[in-house]
Fold this protein.
Amino acid sequence: MKTLQVDCGKCKAPFSLPLPEPSVATNCPHCGTYVRVEAFPALLHNNAQGRRGELLTAADESSCYYHPTKKAVTLCADCGRFLCSLCDIEMKGRHLCSACIERGDGKGGSEPFKTEVVRYDDIALSLAILPLIFYCITIFTAPATLYISIRHWNTPMSILPRSRWRFIVAICLAVIQLAAWTYFGARLLGRVLLST
Amino acid sequence: MARTEKKYRRLPGRASPRKFFSLTQVVSSRLFLGEDHVLFVCSSYYADSYKRFYLSDIQALVTTRTNGRRNANILYFILAAVFVANAFIFRSWEWTRSLQYPFLGISGVGVLLAAINTLLGPTCVCDLHTAVQVENLSCLRRLRTAQKTIGILKPLIEAAQGRLTADELRGQPEERERVQASAHAITEPRKPRRHEHGTIHVIAFCLLLVGATSSLTDILFQHPLKSMVGLILFLGMFIFLIIAVTKQADTDLPETVKSVTRIALCLLIISFLFGIIYGNIYRMSHPEMFQQNIWEAKIEGPIFVGYCIADAAVTSVLGLLGIAMVLRFRYQYAAYLRYSRGSTSVEHQG
């Protein structure tokens, strides 16, 4: 019978759970807490063995760009470098090397590989709102808010649907703060000039 | 203009913030359903990180019921009880009578939170298993939400992988019990534990005993010099307990000693806060005290006597318990060292 190695979510103790059915409700043998398992056919599949690059047999054979001793089997669809079967990554019918995939991830181009994004709109909004507590520092933070909002207006922020309302609110608040500073600055300057 | 097609559908469940004062920690997480995968989004303050689990790779979804709801309810009721008790204390004096209503309001919020928590249902931990990882889906913290999400995912996973039958599972050869470390142990390696002799702990527990004696003598005898000594003693206890709590992390000290130290620190803080609140109320109800020097002021009354007795009892019990446990640990550690030295010398002789 197939068993599943499970860690109890409550006492964290590991235990082997026999699976007579795909859906099993049982209790942890250590702490007796209720555990429910939903198993799927992937549990029975053996992990596919990774491919190994074939070694060069003749001196005139083409070798991999990254592994000079291994035989080239394809070339990267992006950069054209020769790749052995170890370096060849197939993605949506295209053969790519790891460097091209990494470059694409950095530019925000290849969405399936994106693992982290910075939410610049939240940064801009926080920079517009939080310094209001210490209002005098808004003279520095308002231009910074405007800079971040304009600089990252087109930067992809999330692979999930996300509107730009935070940028718009941040820009409005920054403009109001700058207008207030200009007004009070002009009044102060006027007073100084009048007194002199 | 045609609207762009939504790639992801939001699944039920959202983890509430856990760590407020950390810029790098995950503050919330959510699950989304893509075309052929489940997207697990962990958000910190200004960044999102993504983990994809392809429907064809998911081996199992394991849900374990936890005691989170009960623990949270206990906390909410303690909060409510503390504020109700404070409201009754404030009711005793004319000066502070109006303060009882905000305090009763806060305790009402505690009861309301407990009611909402009860209605949300039992809590759970949900783990997603693939061939190479076990991921805790922290957004599925309620059993009802986890079951709802699994109910959405199950037909989709079965559409991608096919249906698993009981015959297939029973037809598998008997597996030997695995002796490998658990999945959590692999993902979160434990730090090596260093030895801690517990000297700071012993000093802190001894100070607790002295503090208990000082609390008891406060009932019979109050003097400016004694008040100053009491303050220095309190600061000493506080500093030594903080050092002990900091030092005990990742050490081989018994978990009970660590817990007693933490409890002692919490009680010290609670006792300090209660002392400040009660002292101020007492001063407001006795205006003649404002003309006295702060060190010369004397507090009397049944609440003060009860507070001193309770403080002395709890701190002395904790102090004695802590000292006894540290000394026992030291004795056991010395015996272990003697044994290990003895066995190595026998090996050398052999």
Q: What stands out?
A: The longest helix of chain B spans residues 302-349. Residues 11 and 35 of chain B are 13 Å apart (CA to CA). The two ends of chain B are 89 Å apart (CA to CA).
